[in-house]
Amino acid sequence: MRKTLTALLFAATLPAVALAMPDEGPRHGGMRGEPHGMMFKELDLSREQRESISKLMREQMKSQHDITQRYLDKLPEAERKAMQQELEAAKKQQHDSIRALLKPEQQKDFDALVKKMEERRAERAEFEAWKAEKEKAE
Predict the structure, then answer these.
(1) Integer angstrom CA distances of residue 76 from 6, 86, 88
(2) Average pLDDT of the chain?
(3) Closest by alpha carbon to 52, among 60, 63, 42, 38?
(4) How far apart are CA 66 and CA 110, in angstroms?
């Protein structure tokens, strides 16, 4: 249980770390936008290989998400709510810590990025709710 919560906490904080990274140019000198760019940097991969690896990694992330969700669905509602509150508190603390490291002009940009990410998340949740409702109607 503790390992699951730790993994979820870590997964929940990754977007904030990604926001703090510059958007221009390759990250870590590897494939642009790829989470393991450094690992593959020295392999001199073709475009097709990079795309295939990206696809495999996305599939793995989805699989991990599905497995985690299956176990979370088994938790009692009170524990799920407590976990969600703890994850939100940890996320806020991480955002505050990152923000404290930034210069004032960077803080404004960071705040805008966080707001934009929250808007996207809300739009996605709205879409998922609509999609689920549509599937129920069919």
Answers:
(1) 18, 15, 18
(2) 80
(3) 60
(4) 30
